[in-house]
Each structure stands twice: as C-alpha cells, then as structure tokens.
Amino acid sequence: MKEQKQIILASSSPRRKEIAALFFDRFEVVAPEVDETVENTLSPEQVVLTLAERKARAAAKIKKAEDAVYIGSDTIVYAGGRVLGKPENRQAAKDMLRTLSGSTHSVYSGVCVLWQGKAYTGYEETRVVMRPMGEDEIDAYAASGECDDKAGAYAIQGRAGVFIERIEGPYHNVVGLPLKTLGLIWKDLFGGLL
Known about the structure:
The chain is α/β, with parallel strands linked by helices. The protein has six helices and seven strands. Strands 1, 2, 3, 4, 5, 6 and 7 form a seven-stranded mixed β-sheet that branches. The radius of gyration is 17 Å and the shape is elongated.
C-alpha cells in the first residue's frame, strides 16, 4: 500500500527524514512554517498532538494533493514541570542542559497522519535519565552547535549520547518520530506494516 500512496513528510528535521527513509521508498519532504505557539494550559501530550496536526495540515495546504498521506510530527522535552523546546541561543541551551543534568525527564513525540482531510493522531512518551554533567561538558556540548535546533537542547543520537544513563521507552521517540504509534495508525488506515 505504501508504494501506491503519495507520502508527504511535513518536517524540516533531518532526523525524521532519515527515519522515514527506512520505511518509505519514495516520499516528499515539505517543511511548512508553522506557528508553534500553544496555550500554556495544554499538557505535554496535547502540545505535541496539536503541533503535529498543525504541521500536517500546513503541508496539505501547500501541496494541495487531496489523496496524499501527510505525516506531521513534533517533539518536546518535559522537565521540572515545564516544556523545553528548541533553545533560542547558546545560553538558553546551557540553561536547559543544566536543568536536565543528573535528572530524569520525559520526551514526548506526537504524530499526525492526515489522509483525505481527516487527522489520525497519537503520541509516545520516553523517560530519559541523564548523568550529571560538569560545566565544562555543558560548555563544550553547547559550543558544538549540535543543540541548536533540538528540543531540550540535545540530540540523543549524537554527541549527547555520552550523557544518557538509560531510557525507559522507545528510542526513536526521543529522536523525533514515534514509530510504534505511526505504525499502528498506518496499519489501521492501510493494513500491513509501514
């Protein structure tokens, strides 16, 4: 089924593109500019579901391909009772890393499969335990630039892997695409595996 559908990945994330390439032989990337402002009363789950759908619908407006399958996703880090999005600058990245150092936080990723105007959504949560980081490590990691466009200011699949003690839940969810949930939505809509 996946070969017969036009698949549009609504994301500018190279990591999501890499994951999607594992499952889809052909797909197009459309990276719509979307307003990521949400009400501060939303739960972490609601935030990622709202933004994933917003991205998929924005891509559909751009492409205007009615029978295409649009896939949108969003990831946030939730620590200390607050959402940590992408850092605005290196100082913000360092502050986020200090918050995460030596503690456990949650990573939420939401996914939206938009098909024929109807949104099918879901999310996953992964708990990440980080070892304590020294100021020199925080400075060096922030200076590497890897944290610049990452929720929570780190990339588990990159250099930040040295800070991770363990994860409880799906790995790809932390990278940015909740595969189990996407696979279940796909199976319900089209049958079979991704």
